[in-house]
Amino acid sequence: MSATVVLGSQWGDEGKGKLVDILSADFDICARCAGGNNAGHTIVTFAFHLLPSGLVNPQCTGLIGNGVVVHIPSFFAELDALQAQGLDCTGRLFISDRTQIVFDFHQIVDGLKEVELGGSSIGTTKKGIGPAYSSKASRSGLRVHHLFDHETFAAKFRKLVEGRFKRYGHFEYDTEGEILRYKELAERLRPYVIDSVVYIHKALSEGKKVLVEGANALMLDIDFGTYPFVTSSSTTVGGVCTGLGIPPKKIGTAIGVIKAYTTRVGGGPFPTEQLNDIGVHLQEVGREFGTTTGRRRRCGWLDLVVMKHSCMINGYDSLNLTKLDILDDLDEIKVAVKYLVDEKELPGFPADLEVLAKVDVVYLTLPGWKQSIVSARSIDDLPGNCQKYIGFIERFLGVPIEWIGVGPGRESMVKKVGMLAV
Ligand code: IMO
Ligand code: MG
Q1: Is the CB of residue 324 below 6 angstroms from any atom belonging to ligand 1?
Q2: Pairing state of beta strands 360-367 and 332-341?
């Protein structure tokens, strides 16, 4: 058996949670491989940040892989909220013993780093993600298995905090109080902790169906995104292998989730951003507010230069185009098709943000459909101009759009197979 992977193809908030919700009804395991509680997916009335959203389906087991960074109090807060809403997760949630821990001091440092950056701050979620991955990369991080040898844990923890004090000055932090708190948290976490490598390989070899839920998105990837305005993990298909310990041959299908326009939260470049009525329209009609931080999302046209870059790296088998209904009222819709510098087309999405700042974005204008598509349930229910928009994207990228989101509800999804003939 091989895993199915759902990945964000733009700057996040593409609507990955809805597809994961629909698909997970048919899967045995839903796993997270990267990121932390910087992600945010609301499904029905359940809010997911750290836990796999497949948990909404009662037959699905959630797994947090080694590539994730976990703030344990947030893990329990999210779990308690789900249980309080009647979603019983007993016996169907596990976490890898290799998962790195995010501590409160990482979150404090996240804020201090942003202040230090001043005008060029990244606009992080302040969940301690960057500082926790920094601890991991500098080989001083603490992992879940460390919790179960309290004396060693305490010694390593003191050293880690001391290092942060040296770097950032003596911020207010109760080191000894935290050590005691983690002694208790360790016992509460114990039943969830497993060797996830053995677990997932056994599951795959027994023919269990595994769904991997990507967090964040391609353009926020530490290598391929708009560095340094990115998150601190591998959000690509490569992160699925390293974040779960599964070989590339065990990845069967990769589905890219792409919003019908583009949004971005936080700082950093955004070539198709519309600081005008169009941007305001998309923000308001699309209700573009961050689920994790409540921030207003920046909005603009769909950028197919970004999407080509995304397709090359993740090799999507198919795409889920989301929030297409948000474009219903527009007379015409623009799509970015190339970047020019000094009138010469760039071969791909540039690495250098100085180059990116100089690009002239070339748009193609497509006619709008000017009617509501919210009740469409098959491709034939969609107006001609809407089908043309879908067909254009597919042909440009060479990847079929097999799911089309036409409204907020679970049922508002048009499914089709292969590419459109138009
Ligand atoms: P989902 O899974 C949108 C952005 C932050 C910030 C940058 C770095 O909901 O699509 P971090 O806290 O990760 O160090 O912040 O990355 N960011 C996201 N934006 N959706 C996300 O996840 C994001 N995860 C991180 O806004 O600009
Ligand atoms: Mg988000």
Answers
A1: no
A2: antiparallel
Q: Which ligand has the minimum distance to the alpha carbon of residue 37?
A: 1
pTM value?
0.97
Rounded average pLDDT per 10-residue block, the chain, 422 residues: 97 96 96 96 89 96 98 98 96 98 98 95 96 98 98 98 96 98 98 98 98 97 98 98 98 98 97 98 95 90 98 98 98 98 98 98 98 97 98 98 96 96 76
Contact between residue 136 and residue 116 where contact means Cβ atoms under 8 Å apart: no
Is the CB of residue 70 below 6 angstroms from any atom belonging to ligand 1? no
**The tokens of 27 are what?**
């899967």
Q: Which ligand is nearest to the CA of 131?
A: 1
- Cα-only R_g, the chain: 22
Rounded Cα gap, residues 328 and 381, in angstroms: 14
Is 41 among the catalytic positions? yes
pLDDT digits (tens, 9 = 90+) for 328-340: 999 999 999 999 9
Strand (E) or helix (H) holding 24: helix 16-24
- The 10 Å Cβ neighbour count of residue 348 is 10
The CA 187 to ligand 2 mean position distance, Å, reads 31
216 Cα: distance to centroid of ligand 1 (angstroms): 6
CA of 150 to the centre of ligand 1 (A): 33
